[in-house]
Design a protein that fits this description.
Length: 664
């Protein structure tokens, strides 16, 4: 059972929208019947979301995630109040924070949607907290995933997301700028952690995103700063895990952890003088990160809480937090004999040892800025609309206008309402969760799947077989899967790599008991764009069509005898389901700059992209723009849902809107 939100948020309504707009909608024709009626339902999901935290002198510095203003807050642990903040002018989230405790500087690295010339590394002078953070430059990789400051004040940065393997980057304050020290492993797709001494920089990486094929597994390199040379020091027991997840230099040892292992993650302590001398233990769960040390005991976070490990032995223990659910932990630090854990639920827990008594600080109540967040999946039904965010789902009451933030770990990538119950596909590796608004505000996991199949992407309801269908991607292994869940019986199943062992399943649609799967490929080369007709009860292929497109399938929908597909970057494909052949293609790149989502409503097919909502005529396949410049504030691709009246729910900027297409 998850921890529920402690507050109900009444959505702020724009001055142009009357409160009556929240009543059950009327679908009568207006005097101008051709124009779509667009009703704002307020911010889609409002919360303080975070992605990083470090502690210095009793103050936690916490980096924001997917908010309109990207920045860092300073939380005084003793008073439980935000005492300072700063913002940066670029990026959507802050995963990387690097402390220089000697000079009292905080370095900030951002994640970006696209690489460019804008800076992605900033510096904040903690002795002048009212002064803004200043840009110091950009690493060549799109995203900054980790920062570390050596005792001599030199900063090191790692990340990924560019067109080449991630490099190790250096900023020497005496020189300025950011320079590359080289790429230690051309097969790595993402570097997630870095640590440094005055002599050596430790580079931890792997292929947590875009894995599979010939990509690297866990890779730990030591960079000799004097000789400017890399050497591989990955412990043998870690080499089969997908990625090195975290590093920390403590005294004369290096703490190392992995993530994504088939059985369990690993944690190790290496001797700096001789990295081949180490102690290692199998951890609990699929991830270990955020090291803290108290009295020679190593603490770290996994996906369900906090672990402890005495490096003189091999036993890892899960701390009993007395039922406190912390969700994903983004910071863990030692403070006066206690542990300070920063949770993705926008709370900070001070855990006093050894009895694990906890004090919880709600960041919203502490003064953190609550605002509209970039969104994930969307669903509508039974009088509610739901919008997914980080660590929660906003439940919009369509009758009263009330909004309540449900707490669910991870991210609701997509969702369906079935018989009044919300079902979500939860990233990362969280399976399917459910919420019944008739029973209160609780959420619960109803189905689990192999955690390598960690990224649900699309959901749909198969009414014929009474199955929830979920299309998924395996980030670390390549390929993907189709999940099924039957609410009536609670039975779940999974078909791994139903298209092939390369293509993930990005889209799913259904009709007449047949599931249609749309393939994509996270790698730059290899097959993509295959569409498979699949029997979800027998878990067997019926037939397939190769679209021979340069890009993978973004979305699918069925209307009558036709299966509609749109690729990433906008080729529309129509398949005759009886003939099992493509009968139409057209170029919609001007409307579809990237990903897209599809649904059918009122006998037509609707597509929403990052920029536009448009309609496809099911007979002529003609395109009609319904809302231009909709520009939804999505984090991981656009979504839309239709209610029983045929109204479309999606985002315009970061607000939830209901669109009645009166020209249909």
């Amino acid at each position: 059972m998850s921890q529920i939100s402690r507050r109900t948020v009444l959505t702020a309504i724009g001055t142009t929208v009357a409160l009556a707009a929240f009543a059950t909608p009327s679908y009568a024709e207006d005097a101008a019947p051709r124009a779509p009626r667009i009703t704002s339902l307020g911010p889609a999901i409002e919360q303080y979301a975070l992605m990083s935290s470090v502690l210095l002198d009793g103050v936690a510095y916490i980096g924001s995630r997917n908010l309109e203003t990207t920045g860092v807050i300073a939380l005084d642990i003793a008073s439980g109040k935000v005492i300072a903040s700063t913002t940066v002018g670029n990026g959507h989230s802050i995963q990387a924070l690097g402390l220089d405790p000697i000079r009292r500087l905080l370095y900030i690295g951002v994640l970006q949607k696209s690489a460019g010339s804008q800076p992605n590394v900033f510096r904040w002078d903690l002795d002048s907290p009212n002064s803004p953070a200043t840009a110091i430059g950009a690493i060549g990789d799109r995203d900054v995933r980790a920062l570390a400051v050596a005792p001599d004040g030199v900063l090191f940065a790692v990340g990924g997301g560019g067109t080449t393997a991630p490099a190790l980057w250096q900023h020497d304050p005496a020189v300025g700028g950011l320079v590359s020290l080289g790429v230690p492993d051309a097969k790595v797709t993402l570097a997630r952690t870095v640590a440094a001494t005055d002599q050596t920089v430790y580079f931890g990486a792997g292929s947590t995103l875009g894995g599979g094929g010939s990509t690297s597994r866990a890779a730990l390199y030591a960079f000799d700063r004097a000789a400017a040379q890399f050497s591989n020091i990955t412990p043998a027991e870690m080499t089969n895990d997908p990625s090195i997840r975290d590093l920390a230099v403590v005294d004369e040892q290096l703490l190392v952890s992995t993530a994504g292992a088939a059985e369990s993650s690993k944690i190790a302590r290496l001797e700096l003088a001789d990295p081949t001398s180490y102690s290692l233990a199998a951890s609990i769960g699929k991830v270990a990160k955020n090291f803290a040390v108290l009295d020679d005991t190593v603490y770290c976070a996994n996906e369900t809480g906090i672990l402890s490990w005495d490096p003189s032995g091999t036993t890892v223990r899960q701390l009993d937090l007395k039922g406190l659910d912390l969700g994903e932990i983004w910071g863990l630090d030692a403070l006066d004999g206690a542990l300070v854990a920063t949770s993705g639920y926008a709370i900070v827990a001070v855990v006093t040892l050894p009895d694990a008594a906890t004090r919880v600080i709600d960041l919203g109540e502490a003064g953190a800025p609550i605002g509209p967040q970039a969104c994930m999946g969307i669903a509508v039904g039974a009088g509610y609309a739901y919008v997914g965010g980080n660590g929660g789902v906003a439940r919009h009451n369509l009758r009263t206008g009330d909004v309540f933030n449900l707490t669910i770990p991870g991210e609701a990538k997509d969702a369906e309402v079935i018989d009044g119950v919300l079902y979500t596909g939860q990233y990362s590796g969280q399976g399917i969760w459910a919420h019944d608004p008739r029973t209160g505000t609780t959420t619960r996991r109803v189905a689990s799947f192999p955690e390598a199949q960690n990224r649900p992407l699309d959901t749909t309801w198969d009414a014929c077989n009474e199955l929830l269908l979920v299309a998924a991607q395996a980030d670390t292994e390549g390929g993907g899967s189709l999940w099924t869940y039957q609410p009536a019986t609670g039975v779940a199943s999974i078909a791994v790599n139903p298209i092939d062992d390369i293509q993930l399943v990005r889209a799913v649609a259904t009709a007449d008991g047949v599931a249609y799967l749309g393939g994509d490929n996270a790698q730059k080369t290899g097959p993509r764009g295959t569409i498979v007709a699949w029997d979800p009860t027998l878990q067997s292929e019926l037939w397939r069509v190769e679209t021979n497109q340069a890009n993978g399938i973004a979305a699918l929908a069925v209307q009558g005898e036709h299966l509609f597909a749109i690729t990433i970057k906008g080729t529309l494909i129509v398949i005759d389901r009886t003939e099992r052949a493509i009968v139409h293609t057209s170029d919609q790149r001007s409307l579809t700059p990237g990903f897209a989502a599809m649904t059918n409503a009122g006998g037509s097919v609707y597509v929403v992209t990052d920029t536009t909502l448009f309609r496809i005529d099911p007979q002529t396949f003609a395109i009609t723009v319904v809302v231009a410049g909709i520009d939804g504030g999505w984090y991981s691709g656009p979504h839309l849902a239709a209610d029983k009246h045929g109204a479309i729910y999606t985002l315009r900027s970061r607000e939830l809107v209901r669109i009645e297409d009166q020209a249909r």
